Amino acid sequence: MRILITNDDGINAPGLQVLEEIATELAGPKGEVWVVAPAFEQSGVGHAISYTHPMMLSQMGERRYAAEGSPADCVMAGLHYVMDERPDLILSGVNRGNNSAENALYSGTLGGAMEGALQRIPAVALSQYLGPANIHADDPFEAARAHGAEVIRRILAHTPVEEADYRLFYNVNFPPVDADGVKGFRASTQGFRRQTRFTVEPHHSPSGRKFLWVKGGEQHMPTLPGSDAALNLDGYVSVTPMRADLTAHEVVEKLKGIE
Q1: Annotated binding site, which residues?
Q2: pLDDT band at 90, cuts 50/70/90?
Q3: Which residues lie closer than 8 Å to 121 by C-beta, 6 or more apart?
Q4: For residue 250, what pLDDT is reported?
Q5: pLDDT band at 109; cut points 50, 70, 90
Q6: In whole angstroms, what is the distance from residue 29 CA to residue 258 CA?
Q7: What 3-state DSSP class applies to 170?
Q8: Which residues form the domain of 112?
């Protein structure tokens, strides 16, 4: 198996090393793992692409490249410049922090997987929820490291053959526990944290100028039962199937009255 991996935390992020281990196990001794990851952290860029300016690409080693661009840029660079053949699978992550619920909409990690789906290649985004039980552990990514390869195998085994324009990709979130604390895998919907929002927080520089930092909301509020964050906080790995199609299909017919 040929696998292309990327992330949004950057080429030197510890989660990318975890993903390389997962991908190497999946690829097998005769497979290939290619890395094209952002040269610098790209958290929160979503599915952004560097449409109005070029990006520098640097080779860091065999099958390993850093691009001054977003995760979606990295996927395109990997597919259309770096690799000599298309990969069988694209993996993005392992993100430091969850991309459950509304976080998914901001996530560069998901942006990389989404681009893979738009390029018609199976793609999975992986993120490690952090909490009191693992954030200060020697290996905060232990749950992802131990269970990552198996959950991807299960996803690939149960992914339907399809010819849809907007292909499936998957959002996987590992719970904020150690490897032994993982209760299992669950298919899930995308949740919504109803009592919290992203906000901004003002700060002043030493020169007196005002800057605004984007601030995330409380991450340990459960979402509706059966949705991603609720399952994660209960110790389960959530697997959420997604598409890039943003149409509210259930409203189209109701909107016919405008015609």
Answers
A1: 8-9, 43, 95
A2: very high
A3: 79, 86, 87, 88, 89, 90
A4: 94
A5: very high
A6: 59
A7: strand
A8: 2-258
The pTM of this model reads 0.96
Q: Got the DSSP string for 62-127?
A: TTEEEESS-HHHHHHHIIIII-SS--SEEEEEEEES---TTHHHH-HHHHHHHHHHHTTS-EEEEE
Q: Is the pLDDT of residue 195 over 90?
A: no
The residues with which 200 forms a beta bridge, in sequence order, are: 214
Helix or strand run (H / E) with residue 239: strand 236-242
Phi, psi of 23 (to 5 degrees): -65, -40
Q: What percent of the chain has pLDDT over 70?
A: 100
Q: Give me the pLDDT at residue 222, please.
A: 87
Does 3 have pLDDT greater than 90?
yes
Residues of the binding site for a divalent metal cation: 8-9, 43, 95
The tally of domains found in the chain comes to 1
Q: How far apart are CA 185 and CA 151, in angstroms?
A: 7
- Supply the CATH number for residue 206's domain: 3.40.1210.10
Q: Which amino acid is at 162?
A: E
Count of helix runs (H) and strand runs (E) in the chain: 7, 11
d(CA 229, CA 183): 14
Distance of CA 110 to the CA centre of its chain: 4
Q: Give the per-residue pLDDT at 190.
A: 98
Nearest of 125, 124, 142 to residue 133 by alpha carbon: 142
